[in-house]
Amino acid sequence: MHTRSDYLFTSESVSEGHPDKVCDRISDAVLDAFLTEDPEARVACETFATTDRVIVGGEVRGPAGVLGRIDSIVRNCVRDIGYAQKGFNWETLTVQNYIHGQSDNIAQGVDGGNGKEEGAGDQGIMFGYATDETDAHMPAPIHYAHAILRRLAEVRKSGVERRLGPDAKSQVTLRYAGGRPVECASLVLSTQHLDENMSSADVRAMVEPHIRDVLPDGWLTKETVWHVNPTGKFVIGGPDGDAGLTGRKIIVDTYGGAAPHGGGAFSGKDPTKVDRSAAYAARYLAKNVVAAGLARRCVIQLAYAIGVARPLSIYADTYGTGEVSEAAIEAALGSVMDLSPKGIRTHLALNRPIYQRTSAYGHFGRKPDAEGGFSWERTDLVEALRKAV
Questions:
Q1: Which of 259, 5, 256 is nearest to 129 (CA)?
Q2: How far apart, in whole angstroms, are the C-alpha atoms of residue 144 and residue 181?
Q3: What is the pLDDT of residue 103?
Q4: Which letter does DSSP use for residue 352 in this model?
């Protein structure tokens, strides 16, 4: 929540091979499997991973046949991420499945019918944020922290850099001047490497060209401080090196700490859970406010109660950058989009198997795709918002 114009700000990202991200990927793959067979399926799937073991649990309401495929879903995820190492191998790991039916007490609050409007799947607060400091309307530190790891995953999987392993973390510190990012003050990268003889200097030599290719020209200077594998060797990675759990990287998943977070995780939750769907809607609204030129920065908060359809509150803050009042924006938001859980799912077409792709490198700042993924990144409310204010 920056009020200064000159400062340093840091955000981190983690790769798809990070233990927590392995778990997010599996949870979302289970969700996608259910939604493929039944768009109205209810899923709350949690995953835990450790040395040569993955445990999946949670509650669902959907086609029973998917439960028989959990083992193969898990192995396919681990194989695609790239783990075939001693201690965590997609072929030899043990998969334990403890998924069971959804609680009737939860279902009764969510289900519509008999004149009752479908309610939110839980109480909670959700935030969405957008800024004009990048073309993706994302804060620059998290945007480029993701971009670095996404590029390293690409060159690892393509075979260009065969010595890279799946597990990695990045951290980018940017210097802001006049409220805009102007240079990279420091850069931290810890990445798994498969060659045990590589030093930190060797790893830097391998990754630096790719990092320079991703960051804007002129941001890396002779003053930029680099820390590449600062602890030394990083050969043992993934859940063999550290346990993983679904939902532990919520700041990585959103805005890198540059905006408030409601506290709810996304992965493994079907879109009746407003932790996920309303956070997507809030981002969608904030991005459209900025894209419409109504503000240079905008945060939106939505609040819900379990079993209640309409949001309890809608809040907007433009940090003094607004061209219209926050009250006008708040009034406009409810008029341009139905913010009930069902309205959000319908408007953004969320009842589709589009969630595995969100599980690494951020849920926001991505391009909408042909299959309906990242529909909340569209800017198709711009004209409606301009008219509504």
A1: 259
A2: 11
A3: 66
A4: S
**What whole-number distance in Å separates Cα of residue 166 and Cα of residue 87?**
14
Residues in the chain: 389
* Calpha distance 11→323 (Å, rounded): 28
Q: Which amino acid is at 256?
A: G
Helix (H, G, I), strand (E, B) or coil at 146: helix
pLDDT at 106 over 90: no
Q: Give how far Cα 94 sits from Cα of 5, 55, 74, 91, Å.
A: 52, 8, 10, 9
CB 126 within 8 A of CB 313: no
pTM of the model: 0.95
Beta-carbon-side half-sphere exposure of residue 233 (alpha carbons within 13 Å): 8
Summarize pLDDT for 36-57 with one digit per residue, the tens.
999 999 999 999 999 999 999 9
First to last CA, the chain: 25
Q: What is the pLDDT of residues 301-317, one digit of tens each?
A: 999 998 888 999 999 99
CB 31 within 8 A of CB 268: yes
Q: List, for residues 229-241, the tens digit of each pLDDT value.
A: 998 899 999 999 9
Closest CA to 350 of 293, 251, 264, 284: 284
- Closest C-alpha to 261, from 271, 270, 250: 250
Report the catalytic residues.
18, 20-21, 46, 59, 169, 234, 242-243, 248-249, 269, 273, 275
Single-letter amino acid code for the residue at 117: E
pLDDT digits (tens, 9 = 90+) for 65-94: 999 999 999 999 999 999 999 999 999 999
Token reading at 47? 């995953």
